[in-house]
Amino acid sequence: MELTPLYAKSVTCGLCKHKFTSTKIRGRFVRVKEYSTDLMPVYEDSSINPNLYHVHVCTECGYSFTDDFALYFPPGGKEEIQDKISKHWQHLDFSGERTPDDAIKAYKLAIYMATIKREKSIILAGLYLRLSWLYRNRDHEQEERFQRLAVKAYKDAYSKEDYAGTQITTERVLYLIAELSLRLGEDEDATRHFSKIIEKQHNSNDPKMVHMAKERWQTYREERKVL
C-alpha cells in the first residue's frame, strides 16, 4: 500500500473528551526549501505544509487546541467555551486536506480558546505568528495585524519567562521580537532586542540564533545605508 503525505491521528478533546480524527502530515514528505527571516518555513510543495494542520478542532464541541495547550481550564473556562462556541457548533469537520482558509479558521478558533483558557503568552505568540504566515502574500493588513499581536505576546512571554522548561530559548524569543518589530517598521524596538541577543553571544545556549541575529542585523544596517 502506497503511503500518502496525510494521515489520520486519533485525538481526545480536552473539553468534551470526545475522540475524533485530526489530520497530520508524515515527516518524510515534508521538504523545507528555505526559512524566511521570521523563521517561517518555505516548503517545496506548498500543499504539504504542516502549519495547516497544527490545530486540532473537535467535531463534537468545536474546542480547538494544539499539542502545546495545557490540560487545565481556569474556573469558568469550560463553561464559557461551551456557552460561546459549543452551543452553536454545527459539527464542522476539519479533518482531511485543509486549505489555507480552513487553517485560518482553525487558528482563530484556537486563539479564542487560548485567550479564554489564559494559556501562557508563549503559546498565544506562536499561534499569532503562524497565523501571520498563513496571511503572507494573501492579505498584508491581516499579516501585520497578527505580527503586532505576536510581538506583544512574545514581549509578555519574555518578561514572565513563561517559556522556561520548553524547547524555546530566550534568544529565539528576543530574535522574533526584533525581527517582527523590524518588519513592522519599529526600528528602535528591533535595535534594542537584536542588541540583547548579541550581548549574550559569549554565554549563549543558542549560538545558532545569535548567529542569525548578527547576520540579520548586519543586513539591515547595510540596507539602511543604501537607502
From TrEMBL:
UniProt xrefs under Pfam families: DUF2225
Highest taxon in the source lineage: Bacteria
Protein name per Swiss-Prot or TrEMBL: DUF2225 domain-containing protein
Naturally occurring in which organism (per UniProt): Jeotgalibacillus salarius
